[in-house]
Design goal:
The chain has about 240 residues and is an alpha/beta fold. The protein contains seven helices and ten strands.
């Protein structure tokens, strides 16, 4: 099956779950650098082609600002559940079903929330929310679930690490000509030193977050999308739905 036909099949599955007149909230989660944003965009395009109105948001927008994380001593564990404004995230995912809801935006270049990019969305047919901190079902199974469907992006840890290192280095290279970038502070380091830093962040922060929190969503997902080292979809496993 081609990549396009695989995505089309996933989109058809998702669209079939939507009740007429209702907003279907679809979560996409998985490790850092698993390709959640790209998958969300591709899936959104497929759904749009099926005459569905689709909005895509990211959970990163609900991270607390850096100054607040610093105040709370949480800056070094950004991306872990306590670093999010969880009440605001749940409120937005609930409110968008009946009317306008605000969705803040995070900049991976400045490594912080950008208040100027907040989006106000009102009742799309399908809302795709991608990112971390979507393990609600596992963390609190007795609470109301803000998601109608949950997709987990899965891949070998060696591939996840390689993708993260590549993304980190791309941002580091781009910062050479952008002093406003968060990664500009590392431009005084050699490329080898920067790669070592990225590898340390992956091992001590991102991998720990994956093991302790993110991966909790996998057994509760409605669909697991398994990716190979080239980011291509290798398999789809249907879950609880």
């Amino acid at each position: 099956m081609s990549a396009d036909s695989t995505l089309e099949a996933i989109a058809q599955d998702i669209a079939a779950h939507r009740e007429p007149g209702a907003v279907l909230v679809v979560g996409i989660t998985g490790a850092i650098a698993a390709g959640k944003s790209t998958f969300a965009e591709q899936l959104g395009a497929q759904l749009h082609a099926m005459a569905q109105t689709v909005e895509i948001v990211c959970t990163d927008g609900f991270l607390m600002p850096n100054d607040k994380l610093t105040e709370l001593g949480l800056l070094d564990t950004k991306g872990f559940p306590p670093s999010y404004d969880n009440a605001a995230l749940s409120h937005a995912l609930t409110s968008v079903r009946t009317g306008p809801a605000d969705f803040p935006t995070y900049s991976h270049v400045t490594y912080d929330i950008d208040p100027t990019l907040t989006r106000t969305l009102a009742t799309p047919d399908i809302l795709i929310v991608e990112g971390l901190n979507l393990h609600h079902r596992a963390a609190n199974p007795d609470a109301p679930d803000p998601l109608d469907l949950l997709i987990y992006i899965d891949a070998d840890e060696a591939d996840l690490q390689a993708w993260y290192l590549a993304r980190f280095m791309d941002l580091w290279h781009a910062a050479e000509h952008d002093p406003t970038s968060f990664y500009a502070r590392f431009r005084g380091m050699t490329e080898a030193q920067t790669e070592d830093l990225a590898r340390m962040v992956w091992t001590q922060v991102n991998l720990k977050n994956l093991h302790d929190h993110i991966a909790q969503a996998k057994p509760t997902a409605d669909m697991i999308v398994r990716k190979g080292g080239d980011h291509a979809i290798e398999a789809i496993v249907r879950g609880r739905s």
